[in-house]
């Protein structure tokens, strides 16, 4: 969860929306200006004032055709504040509270129509892994993240809502403050009522739980966020022979608050999913090798393992993501346990 976006692509991804936004507002106006300037310039070569007015008159019918769509376009652009993966829109902080010394929970009320964008169809989503594993019945669930930008600096970072955004109409983020972290600092300074720029939703991964007897999720720290969202989004009542879920998550060091134990997080999901969700914790600064081995061995062939760990922990468990953030080869403990690469999804 700690990988930074490359500076160049970050710059490009931030620049593009800004240029588009600027073009949308300034472009049509500047096109109108340039038409009338050319008109004026060509007419200025004539000697009489009546001749000068004729080209201007000629352009009145033309502007009747040009102006209405431009005005419609400008008003549409200005009015739209719906969450969008391509451009930033402003939303409002509803609440902000510390859940540990390093972690802040920020709830952001979304503008009308935004929450529905979290229910993208499979045509929008379909990552390669879903296709590779997709023997299910088309009930794919997609986990999304959103981009948060710093208002002062030209940088953005991805954050994963820990809640069911579509059902609740708001985004709940838990953000860790890291030393020298720029966007983390911005998020930690947010107060109720503050505007916050969001871009998204962006699919992180999709999974069809009905394809599996058990889905195992392994994480540490804020790496649990995609799993909290997945479990929040899944319906409470799964069929008796439906998928079971195992969440394996690191405990924090003894002197840190275990923020995932907040009643709104793991305990709420345990009471929602009952026996279908098993939660196992493993000690900090260790690898969850035994917990994984137990969970995989207790599962049949139809098992999927989702891994969201820092690179140093992910490598021995299942091998690293590639430099271009592709899945790469399955190695490490999960391969030694007999899993195939289409039974593991590595998350950044
Ligand atoms: C898809 C995705 C979803 C994510 N979801 C979340 C989320 O829900 N909550 C969350 O808190 N983060 C999440 N992250 C990580 C987040 O995007 C940022 O990387 C993180 O908040 C640091 O950003 P920053 O601007 O504060 O610090 P930066 O300015 O990027 O980093 C400052 C310094 O801190 C180091 N650093 C960065 N991250 C960590 C870390 N985790 N631990 C220790 N040192 C670190 C950097 O290497 C750098 O030296 C997610 C990342 C991805 C790719």
Please characterize this protein's 3D structure.
GO terms for molecular function: oxidoreductase activity. Pfam families: FAD_binding_6. This is FAD-binding FR-type domain-containing protein. With about 350 residues, the chain is α/β, with parallel strands linked by helices. It folds into three domains: about 70 residues; about 130 residues, Translation factors (Elongation Factor Tu (Ef-tu), domain 3, Beta Barrel); about 140 residues, Nucleotide-binding domain of ferredoxin-NADP reductase (FNR) module (Rossmann fold). It is about 35% helix and about 20% strand. The chain has eleven helices and eleven strands. The strands form two sheets. The chain has a six-stranded antiparallel β-sheet with strand order 4-3-6-1-2-5. Strands 9-8-7-10-11 form a five-stranded parallel β-sheet, sandwiched between helices. Strand 7, helix 7 and strand 8 form a beta-alpha-beta unit. The radius of gyration is 26 Å and the shape is globular. The protein starts with 6 loop residues before the first helix and ends with a strand. Flavin-adenine dinucleotide binds next to strand 4, strand 5 and helix 6.
